[in-house]
Amino acid sequence: MKRLLFVIFIFPFLLNAQDFPIKPSNYITDEANVLSDEQELALNSKLRSFEDSSTNQIFIYIASSLNGKDLSSYSQDIFHNWKIGQGDKNNGVLISIFINDHKFRIHTGYGLEGALPDIATKHIQDNDMRPLFKQNQYYEGIDKGIDQLMYYSKHEFKEIESSVEEESTAGLFIFFYAFSAAFLLVILLLTRKINDRPTAKKILIILSIIFFIIPFLGAFLLLIMIFVALSYRKDLLKTSGTSNWTSSSGSSWSSNDSSSSSWSSSDSDSGSSFDGGGGGDSGGGGSSSDW
Q1: Residue-averaged pLDDT of the chain
Q2: CA pair distance 8, 2, nearest whole angstrom
Q3: DSSP 3-state assignment of 24?
Q4: CA-CA distance, 157 to 124, in Å (whole number)?
Q5: CA 265 to CA 160: how far, in whole Å?
Q6: What is the pLDDT of residue 62?
């Protein structure tokens, strides 16, 4: 009876142990057999060279299905049990891919959360890996994702942020320039009403052109100028009846960051053997996606 109770108690744990992936013998664990031997060799060589040069570890786990498990929790369990990254740096990354579920996750260690924030891993997934996974080009998607992770683990995410800021600045500049152009048009229309004052007309035209050339200054100063003109120089507006001015403006800003990077590595292995996880851990950072 005691033996039966013991088996009943331990049986769920035995099932979980059998289902949980064993510690890898290399950086790539492909249980779904979507990579050829040559592709695995190329990826392992690249990841070995990357660890040698940076001490960062990137592991790839590919399986057929999650079998009902939660993607984030399961990735965290794998990361913790495989101890990805160096123990004193926690500088590991796990890419877990589940073919039949069409889901994948980039899971980061504590030490790389600054260099690879969630927004960075999500960007890499959606812009570099997902389009290739949709075409069943798993090797190409993994390879490109690895390249991006390698690049941003060294350069952090500043360049993408800078690119977004530059595009936002450009959009703001265009907006103000269009704003200034609209006021330039208004000023030119106003000057048609003061043909009897040539000096004032010339001054308005010159100032409006200057403010148009300097859009930020023009956008504000021309607004003030119109306000003053309407408030204190009503005699400039000699119109009959009632006139209605309506202005509409719209802007649509869209940013499509695309970044490409390449990682140079030798075609042959670096010569050093696979040492497994270095004792690192993760706090659950990273992002999930599907295709």
Answers
A1: 75
A2: 10
A3: coil
A4: 11
A5: 24
A6: 97
To 5 degrees, how large is the angle CA 26–CA 122–CA 269?
A: 25
Query: By 3-state DSSP, what share of the chain in percent is helix, strand and coil, each rounded to 5?
Result: 55, 10, 35
Q: Give the chain's count of helices (H) and strands (E).
A: 9, 5
- φ, ψ dihedrals at 108, nearest 5°: -110, 150
Q: Please report, as a single letter, which amino acid is at residue 29.
A: T
Given a contact cutoff of 8 angstroms between Cβ atoms, the answer to whether 90 and 80 are in contact is: no
First to last CA, the chain: 50
Which residues are 58's β-sheet partners?
93
User: pTM to 2 decimals?
Assistant: 0.59
Q: 218, exposed or middle or buried, with CB in 10 Å at 0-12, 13-18, 19+?
A: buried
How far does Cα 227 stand from its chain's mean position? 43
The token duo for 291 is 């295709």
- C-alpha distances out from residue 224 to 61, 145, 149, 174, 205, Å: 63, 52, 50, 20, 15
Kind plus residue range of the DSSP H or E element containing 62: strand 57-63
CA distances from 202 to 154, 179, 190, 225, 285 (A): 58, 22, 12, 15, 63
pLDDT tens, position by position, 110-169: 889 888 999 999 999 999 999 999 999 999 999 999 999 999 888 765 554 444 455 555
Check residue 129 and report its DSSP letter. Answer: I
Please list, residue by residue across 127-155, b when 16 or more beta carbons sit within 10 angstroms of its beta carbon and e when fewer do: bbbbebbeeeebbbbbbbbbbbbbbbbee
User: What is the arithmetic mean of pLDDT over 249-253?
Assistant: 35
What the block records as the tokens of 168 is 């936002």
Structure tokens at 48: 């070995």
Q: Are 139 and 99 in contact (CB under 8 A)?
A: no
